[in-house]
Automatic annotation (TrEMBL):
<protein>
    <submittedName>
        <fullName>Asparaginase</fullName>
    </submittedName>
</protein>
<dbReference type="InterPro" id="IPR029055">
    <property type="entry name" value="Ntn_hydrolases_N"/>
</dbReference>
<dbReference type="InterPro" id="IPR000246">
    <property type="entry name" value="Peptidase_T2"/>
</dbReference>
<dbReference type="Pfam" id="PF01112">
    <property type="entry name" value="Asparaginase_2"/>
</dbReference>
Length: 294
């Protein structure tokens, strides 16, 4: 396989009209960063990490710098990355001092355990020469503003490289005002993400507790084996509707085709690939009509 493809999301949410362009631009920048890795023959895991790092560094998104605050006024972040080549996973949860949680998650892929939380995850990151920071440095002034009070989004990416390997990743600051120690769906395979070279990959955003209860990523992966990508994503969201949840899903299959679905007002997304001249950004699935499968 000599082609590659990548899709990113900045969260399923209601986006103020004044912030539409900034969300599109942020997602396009992330897609471009991941594309550079893939264009030069890099692996899907590295591309997913590169794309999500850009999203974590952009305070418009609820991940990394600019994550929402918990009930104690602190940032607590979760992230995960999965390699569809061998089904390996790395995940961190409840971290406060890791500037880019997705970097620590990737570092866990060849190690055990799969998931580390809190101080244990931060200690592991330090052992891997991943620089830690003061937790206060992760708080963006924007997150004090009322316009973010209802934010509950996650960022994510799915990619397929020239060798046909697929990876998926997620990163989030979780729910605003959450109970300290709360962990959502983002670091949990089968819930917030999944990747399998023989099928495809998916990354979710939305109501974490509802996604955990319904294991949306697992439902999507099963449906992906039977039909078009967007239909597979809708199958997963139907489970979310069942429990009154809101969210969105991005997909890539083993042929490099894209799928997007959401039941939220908006879903910040960007796609790029060897068949596209540049990344395409959107805040609603309808903006990507003609570029999606099904």
């Amino acid at each position: 396989m000599s082609e590659w493809a990548l899709i990113v999301h900045g969260g399923a949410k209601t986006i103020d009209v004044a912030l539409h362009d900034r969300n599109r631009e942020g997602c396009r920048a992330a897609a471009a960063a991941g594309a550079i890795v893939l264009q030069f023959g890099g692996c899907a895991v590295a591309a997913v990490e590169a794309a999500i790092r850009v999203l974590e560094n952009d305070s418009i998104f609820n991940a990394g710098f600019g994550s929402v605050l918990n009930a104690d006024g602190a940032v607590e972040m979760d992230a995960a990355i999965m390699n569809g080549r061998d089904l390996s996973v790395g995940a961190v949860a409840g971290v406060r001092r890791i500037r880019n949680p997705i970097v620590a998650a990737r570092a866990l892929i060849p190690a055990r355990p799969v998931l580390l939380a809190g101080e244990g995850a931060e200690r592991f990151a330090e052992e891997q020469q991943i620089a830690l920071c003061d937790p206060a440095e992760m708080i963006a002034p924007d997150r004090m503003a009322s316009e973010y009070a209802k934010a509950h989004d996650t960022v994510g990416c799915v990619a397929i490289d020239m060798q046909g390997h697929i990876a998926a990743g997620t990163s989030t600051g979780g729910l605003p005002g959450k109970h300290p120690g709360r962990i959502g769906d983002s670091p949990l395979p089968g819930c917030g993400l999944y990747a399998d070279d023989g099928i495809g990959g998916v990354s979710l955003s939305g109501d974490g507790e509802m996604i955990i209860r319904t294991t949306i990523a697992a439902h999507v992966m099963h449906a992906l084996q039977a039909g078009p990508l967007c239909a597979a994503a809708e199958t997963g969201l139907a489970q979310l509707d069942r429990v009154g949840g809101e969210g969105g899903a991005i997909l890539i299959d083993r042929h490099g085709r894209f799928g997007v679905a959401h039941n939220s007002d908006h879903f910040a997304v960007a796609i790029h690939g060897s068949r596209l001249a540049e990344p395409h950004g959107a805040v609603h699935r309808q903006e990507l009509e003609g570029l999606l499968d099904g």
